[in-house]
């Protein structure tokens, strides 16, 4: 009997993940790709994948991959009135690729295990380009046995597939990775306008911070876009803020001081209060530009 695999959530990450699961398989699996939003499903087609808005198509799946916006959506999909957790095959595995809070990942995982299901929290890093190329980093939390069983599937979507520890460890690792990234962007947002206000040329400055010792993925991705005044390409600020909320929850629960993270959180909050929640993280530079009366831009023309 062929294995039935379902992917729930077909956004920028979910659809290319479904494609790689299908294209790198041996052709014996049944793969179903589901999104409740007709706009997301419109035009999607791939040999070997059944694409649908019907969440009932998940019924009987042996493996369910979730690629959803946040923990509340994950919880509703799994345990709501038409919860997917009750429709899966006995002993099925839920692999949650979404980014959710550590504590919520643990509680949802335990609820799934109580229903006789296996669970991996397996958030990914690598952006849509990594999803398309199948080169994501996948950080997994769960039992060694479940990880071993799912690793061959995860290797279809990721170049680095890592078992980080027990349930919740994948999400905790993703939070750490994202917060470090967020701090990098927040630092750029406050320092670049200061430098321009002091008379430095934005393009020359950009050349230094994208190649010198301060360079990072954050600077190499966002600084060229800031120079062009482009703030609508990446993941929205308002949604990314959840990573800092997750870190704060761990800090409060365990009494761990996170002063630099707290400062970066303030920078995020400034951008959100200024109305930039739908723009990408580079938009954190905008409140600082407004305060100092400068623009970190390349000359037009």
Automatic annotation (TrEMBL):
Catalytic residues (UniProt): 174
Domain 6-phosphogluconate dehydrogenase NADP-binding per the UniProt entry, residue ranges: 4-165
Residue stretches making up the 3-hydroxyisobutyrate dehydrogenase-like NAD-binding domain: 168-285
Molecular functions per Gene Ontology: NAD binding; NADP binding; oxidoreductase activity
Entry-linked InterPro entries: 6-PGluconate_DH-like_C_sf (IPR008927), 6PGD_dom2 (IPR013328), 6PGDH_NADP-bd (IPR006115), HIBADH-like_NADP-bd (IPR029154), HIBADH-related (IPR015815), NAD(P)-bd_dom_sf (IPR036291)
Keywords, in A-Z order: NAD, Oxidoreductase
PANTHER family: 3-HYDROXYISOBUTYRATE DEHYDROGENASE-LIKE 1, MITOCHONDRIAL-RELATED
Name used for this protein in its record: 2-(Hydroxymethyl)glutarate dehydrogenase
Species annotation: Methylobacterium frigidaeris
Gene field: Hgd_2
